[in-house]
Amino acid sequence: MRKDRTMNAAIRHARCPRLATSLLVSLSIVTLNFGCAATSHAGPLQASFDNTKPDAVIELWEQHWTLNDDGSTVFHEKKHVRLNSDRTYDAFCDPRITYNVANDKLDVLVARTKRPDGTYREATDYAHVEVSPGASAGWPAFADVRQHLIVMPGVEPGCVLELEYRITSKAGTRSPPAADVRLDDQYPIGKRIVSITAPEDVAVSFAAIHCSPTGARDKNGNAETIRWTVKDLPAQPREPQSPPWQAKAPRLAFSTAGESTAWFKNLLCSLDASVDDDKLIEKLAVEWTADADSDSEKLRAIQESLEETFNFVAFPVDWRPALPRPASTVMQSGYGLPREAACLYLALVRAAGVKIQSGIIAADHVFLHEAPQLGMIAAYVLVLATDDGLEFWNAQRGRIIRDTRWAGHNALWFDGDELRHHALPPFANADKSRCHIVGDIELDGDGKFAGEVEIAVSGLFVSPERLRTSSQQKSKINSIVRNALPGATVKDFTVTALSDDELRVTAKIKSSDACDKLGEAYQLKLAGGGAAASVVSIPLAAAERRTPAWLAGAFDEHIKLTITWPEKWTVDALPSQVEKLTGDWGKLVQTVSLDESKLTVDRQFHIAKRMLAPADVLTLRGPLNKLRSPHAHTLLLRP
User: Fold this and answer.
1) pLDDT of 410-420, one tens digit each?
2) What pLDDT, in 10s, does the model give residues 446-460?
């Protein structure tokens, strides 16, 4: 049996808040029918590690939201988890409850452990610890965000952890009740209940995706409760780079914020309302745009100044205040949340005399018009109309063309009363995202090398806002070269093509130092992961996989280097070849050809689609791990 932990142990565990991020793909909406029979997922409860006995089972999980007549809100959660293995202790034994100490009242109703023999162990007073979440700690405006950490007592295999609490929030301190709930978990769930109670004159909109929960309505005075119940949810594996949960998991979303178009207008009005008159903002807007000749240059100058001087803070939407602080306050503090940064950017741009609209970036498959809410927004943008078309600017990222974070999303804004959309296409065509490096390298008698390479990158591998200056271009070229030939630096380069979608360069390169030696032999090391690996990651650690791998995009990589060395040198070891591997996922091959004192290494890696099936990931695992191993990318030469 695990003994009760000390205060120090609790504080130690409190330093690792868990955060999650997700990408988004298409979902289908299932209409709910109240009073219908419960629909269970096919098959028995599945284990996350052992198909016969899961490491944990969530026997009951209830979440309830209440909107009171006076505008106050209540969130009530109950959770019973059976632990069958000590491997689940970190996941469940130190639960955290996040709330705002200034605006919320937290009541921990139950915190206890039911032991296998049926007896209970209650959490003692010293098992309750208040901490500041790492994401919000250190920023005075968010100092009231706290986490109540509970070190559950008497934990051992076979026990059941029981936690129940209630958070009551003052009127006006939180956004209208809304939630986007993932119903399943990496452990099986016996019974899942989600409900919302609101005055009967408040409309509650909702959508259910990938599930058909039992729906019920109950009236109590002038309030109505809508309750959804799902039973026997199987475990869903958590694997690196899985598709976003919205793409596959049972999902229930509801909102009391009203119809999405009106909700969106109110949101943009809240941004405008935060733009107040401030002498400092006016002064900085003039100073930062003094050398700008166009509206676009003004937006760029302001954004670059913000990037250098402003601290962008981010933590979960549920922790954030209902409204952003005024732009003047955000300017004085020097830090802010995404919506606050957008307000400040908007204030500075307008103070510079630019006519601008505010908007958002969201994915259609995430932003549910049936249940709009802040958590479905990917980013805030400013929309600028120019003679050459529309431009979209983000306070932290600058001008957005096809950012990998938001590829496949939409920009949304109002043109008068008309809601406008602009698609940011995904990187789905490998032929439009190329990373090609071809060149000749010569080693001298001192183990140093020099040569010339042709570089052509496009699509996924081009960030035009980061390539406007010669120093930015050189930094990008250095990064590409080092990802193909570690130890190389760019001596000189000529840009032969540069656009929003393409960069072509001829670069003269040299080694920063002599190659490392192994005994008397020089080691010339090529890149194990390839030049594309820094942009497109493929999960290769696990020998088993059950979910597809979600990539940044499809791409085509080609690295061909011809290496020569002094005639009298001998070859101790060559990079190994990788036989040609093809499938509907693409192609992978590495050929190595030796001709006296010349070696040519030719690697081609083509990924034809953004989502790789589990079988395709495992097919690629061995060859790609081989390429990453020293014997596949090391040339050993003895003078």
Assistant:
1) 999 999 889 99
2) 999 999 999 999 999
DSSP strands (E only) in 132-241: 145-150, 160-169, 178-182, 189-199, 205-209, 214-220, 223-233
Which CATH number does the domain housing residue 211 bear? 2.60.40.3140
Given a cut of 60, whether residue 343 has pLDDT beyond it is: yes
Q: What is the pLDDT of residues 129-144, one digit of tens each?
A: 999 999 999 999 999 9
Q: How many other C-beta atoms are found inside a 10 Å radius of the C-beta of residue 408?
A: 21
206/269 same-domain check: no
If we measure between CA atoms, which residue out of 81, 78, 87, 93 comes closest to residue 13? 93
Range of the domain at 241: 7-256
pLDDT tens-digit map of 521-533: 999 998 888 788 8
Give, in degrees to the nearest 5, the angle at Cα 428 between 422 and 429.
115
- 8 Å CB contact between 584 and 57: no
Element (H, E) at 624: helix 614-628
My answer on whether 368 and 479 are in the same domain is: no
Domain assignment present for residue 1? The answer is: no
Q: Assess whether 467 and 610 both reside in one domain.
A: yes
Q: Tell me if 309 is assigned to some domain.
A: yes
219 token code pair: 């009236």
Say yes or no to pLDDT of 66 above 90: yes
In this structure, what token pair is assigned to residue 559? Answer: 């690295």
Q: How far apart are CA 99 and CA 217, in angstroms?
A: 29
Whole-prediction pTM value? 0.86
What is the identity of the amino acid at 372? P
* Alpha carbon distance 68, 382 (integer Å): 36
pLDDT score for 52? 65
In a domain, 2, yes or no: no
At 300 the three-state DSSP class reads: helix
Question: 342 in a domain, yes or no?
Answer: yes
91 DSSP assignment = H
Element (H, E) at 270: helix 260-273
In angstroms, rounded to a whole number, what is the distance separating the alpha carbons of residues 166 and 255? 20
